[in-house]
From TrEMBL:
Gene Ontology cellular component terms for the protein in this record: cytoplasm; excinuclease repair complex
Domain of life: Bacteria
GO annotation terms (biological process): nucleotide-excision repair; SOS response
Subunit structure: Interacts with UvrB in an incision complex.
Role, per record: The UvrABC repair system catalyzes the recognition and processing of DNA lesions. UvrC both incises the 5' and 3' sides of the lesion. The N-terminal half is responsible for the 3' incision and the C-terminal half is responsible for the 5' incision.
Protein's name in the database: UvrABC system protein C
Domain UvrC family homology region profile, first and last residues per copy: 266-484
Chief location category: cytoplasm
Amino acid sequence: MAEIEEQLKELPDSPGVYLMKNKSREIIYVGKAKSLRNRVRSYFRKGNHTYKNTILIRHIDDFNYIVTDTEVEAYILEANLIKKYNPKFNIRLKDDKSYPYLKITTQDDFPRIFKTRIVKKDGNKYFGPYADVDAIYKTIDLLKDIFKLRTCKKEIIAGKPESRPCLNFHINKCSGPCIGEISKEEYRRDIELIADFLAGRQGNLIKLVTEKMEETAANQEYEKAAFYRDGRKALKEMARQQKIITGDDGNRDVMAIATEPESDTACAQILIVRHGRLIGQDYILLEGAADTEEEELLSSFITQYYTQNQDIPEEILTYQRPVNQNKLKEFLSSQKGFKVRLHYPEKGEKKRLTDMARRNAEQNLKRSLIKKRYQQEKSAKELSQLQEYLELENKPFHIEGFDISNIQGTDTVASLVVFKHGEPAKDQYRRFKIKTVSGPDDFASMKEVIKRRYSRILEEGRKLPDLILIDGGKGQLSVAVEVLDKLGLAQLDIIGLAKREEEVFLPDRYEPVILPVNSPGLHLLQRVRDEAHRFAVNYHRKLRSRRLTHSMLDQIPGVGPSRRKSLLEHFGSLAEIRSASIEKLTEVSGISDATAEKIYNYLQEHVKPG
């Protein structure tokens, strides 16, 4: 403690973020402070700490901190660090996901519309977020069918038509902007109608589709008329679902928190209102919520939610009054770029909205806790069966699974997946490039990855798994056992699961163990094995694709390693490079007009689209 006492004396009286660490040097808590000196010192003073903080303090072995210029910067940094480290004692968004949006590339002469999870300040239009991904795809398909919007990624410049269109034009799925069949002005009028519809103003689009239906019917184009009739019906259904919920034309998010006594989980509910219409809703579970007031949970949730979600409306309504409300307003306004109103209504229409959010939060929390309870019961049964059938000393709460992937001996990789209490812990998955083995040698590859994994765990003093699962039979299992013995880990339980007969091999048995086909224990082992296989194959495909891409780019005259790197960093993939115009290629650092022309001509001749 003498070292910590010295560090406490040097703490600055400045805003910032502090990171608490345990003996294993894991970050277990991230906090923000108006004064780092006062806030961090408070953890090491005797006083009336909450139960949660008392447990936290017992685990603190060291701390670090980052000084910021303002409290608002501390808010943003805290949320980013919580997302990065997922500390045990923080309130965490359990459903840590990026939200899908619809993007319209309004910076293009002929814009595209597509789903994205990345929102940038690039001058294009974004609509969302949406909780229902299926609804997004249906919306895109419908709008593309009605307006025959282009789906290709290539750059199309107004006034510079190409010699021939793609297949979509010939099958009447595209209006042909690339060959000048539709003008820039006409195409963009359709895009503006779509943007209005997505923003909640549906009338003009429905009116246009109705006019097209009537026009084609009058011209006895009955097939087209039926298409527009069906499209109008779908648009009206979408508009009906976007319920008018306020008397004004405002944009706002409505939020509420629900908690359950003696539960570590809380639920945050969001109602998304745009132009007075309820266009969507979502709920997010919060972990680490025990012994925390709802007002504090709400404040923490708002910070994390709007650090990930860039679509911040002009007003946010809350069922609870969040702590640090003024600082939250500053944070939200800094993220948005102009003033955001954070309002806690106590009566009227807005209070009705927050009450609705609260009711939904309570229902979603109850349903989630029921699912969680059933999942826990299912996992307990699976783990008990495995302990019994495999004669394990302890229940395998922590399982680690390995698989090797290669094709004809190239780009050999290994995967590690981790299951905790019967569920995948994806943040703990790891991928390995095999370094010491040449050719298709699964045994030697398995030997390398087991040694690398558990040597590192021993060096870092981290917790060992309860059970190791190898995808394979006695051969793969034997080499893994050999490595563990040399590392002094012979006590670890390890098994091999062979695919063909689903036989389970144990180190000290000649004959395999056959688990009942319908047993929950076998199903858990299969999930671990299949997940390890999926993860390995995906990584292998990624490396192989990258190698082939590098090989193809290296064959282009004038493109060396540095230019290849610049091209990939700028465009992201070979397909995007191929679809780029010569003008776009010259925007890449180090690419001259002459080199851009060489790249363009080579890829058009040698690389097939798609």
